[in-house]
Design goal:
alpha/beta; eight-stranded mixed beta sheet
């Protein structure tokens, strides 16, 4: 029997952030991951640490934008090493990204209203300041700059995991229900048991099986995406939201750029394209994305590029009509805390809320049981390294 304070199940950004938070407060904590660190939603995210701009495109503040607007400042404190976790060594893909529209007056108005709602957080660029691929005479739109970072998510996972060694366990422990008290222990495949004062479920879609095994009821929903990756060797590195009147209060396409091991550039496409693409086959989604990029960037040559798609399941707490959650979610049931961040940017807020639910105190005497014979999980590769 291994006796600890906190057992975390799920090795994505939430689990690793919480591992750092608990250990920095003196809690004896182990994290369990059944595959590889970051292999679920974390490495499938675009890495944007945004303050809600894409929720303000109709010119008004929403519940989502209110909850998220403080997040970039918290992340920046971590990235500068001012607060924990210390993320000074995390690679930033960019220090800013862009919001742009084409020459349609409706699109211009949408971009303008979004900038007004953010009270100066956007800076409209002069034509001479336009980044590639917008610095072309054929582009007649308007471009704003947002001072928020885009992170290398694989590097973020590596940094959060690097000092924890034997506290990261490869395995899929099964909860042992304990009536209405939560669970009494976790059992490993080799029969070993782990007993904790508090158990934290942050396994994304894996929370569904954990909750069922624990006889706990927290409804979950899946909101799928169908992302597109475009790989070329002459593509510029570009991070932006392309807005359009028809896409309402979300970007028509969100683009981030990622350099591959063979020195290619991948444009990773999300936004409305990824949401509406759920009903399309892979070939249909590629065809749709080609037409979208041809319309938005008629002056960019994509002929030599490779195109693939990636289906991503966003696991979240159940909402009315499967609406997008405005807040991170955490709930305590007995000695179990169930949580979903709902998006990468909100992980610091999730962490503070989980910590507020922990009533236990760190053990005065730690269990002498060792985990050195247990294997640690590897860090997953980003999808653009395996898709082509």
């Amino acid at each position: 029997m291994i006796q600890i304070d906190i057992a975390i199940i799920g090795g994505g950004i939430s689990g690793l952030w919480l591992l750092n938070s608990f250990k920095s407060r003196g809690f004896r904590t182990l994290l369990f991951e059944k595959r590889s660190l970051g292999s679920g939603q974390t490495l499938a995210s675009q890495g944007m640490i945004h303050g809600g701009v894409k929720y303000n495109l109709e010119g008004r503040m929403t519940n989502a934008s209110e909850s998220i607007k403080a997040m970039p400042a918290i992340w920046q404190q971590c990235l500068s090493g001012e607060i924990q976790p210390d993320l000074r060594n995390v690679k930033r893909l960019a220090e800013r990204y862009y919001l742009f529209s084409d020459g349609n007056p409706g699109n211009r108005l949408m971009a303008f209203l979004g900038s007004k709602a953010l009270q100066g957080n956007l800076r409209r660029l002069k034509t001479s300041e336009y980044p590639e691929p917008l610095n072309h005479q054929a582009f007649k739109g308007v471009v704003y700059e947002l001072p928020d970072a885009i992170l290398d998510t694989a590097d973020l996972i590596t940094e959060l995991a690097k000092t924890h060694g034997s506290d990261l366990i490869l395995g899929s422990p099964q909860p042992v229900p304990d009536n209405d008290k939560g669970i009494s222990a976790l059992t490993m495949t080799d029969g070993a048991s782990v007993r904790a004062a508090c158990y934290v479920f942050c396994a994304g879609s894996g929370n569904a099986d954990l909750l069922t095994s624990s006889h706990l009821d927290v409804p979950m929903q899946i909101r799928p995406l169908h992302q597109v990756m475009v790989k070329g060797y002459d593509l510029p590195e570009f991070h932006a939201h392309a807005v359009g009147l028809r896409s309402g209060n979300k970007p028509r396409i969100t683009i981030t750029s990622h350099r591959t091991a063979d020195n290619g550039i991948v444009w990773y496409l999300g936004g409305e394209l990824a949401e509406t693409g759920v009903g399309r086959t892979a070939s249909e989604q590629v065809g749709f994305a080609r037409q979208e990029l041809k319309h938005i960037f008629p002056f960019v040559n994509f002929k030599s590029c490779q195109w693939v798609t990636l289906r991503v399941d966003r696991a979240e707490p159940m909402q009315h009509k499967q609406a997008r959650p405005d807040q991170p979610f955490c709930k305590r049931l007995g000695n179990v805390i169930v949580c979903w961040p709902t998006k990468l940017t909100l992980v610091p807020l999730l962490s503070s809320r989980v910590l507020s639910l922990v009533t236990e105190t760190p053990s005065a005497v730690m269990d002498a049981a060792t985990t050195t014979n247990l294997q640690s999980p590897d860090i997953a590769l980003p999808p653009w390294e395996t898709a082509f």
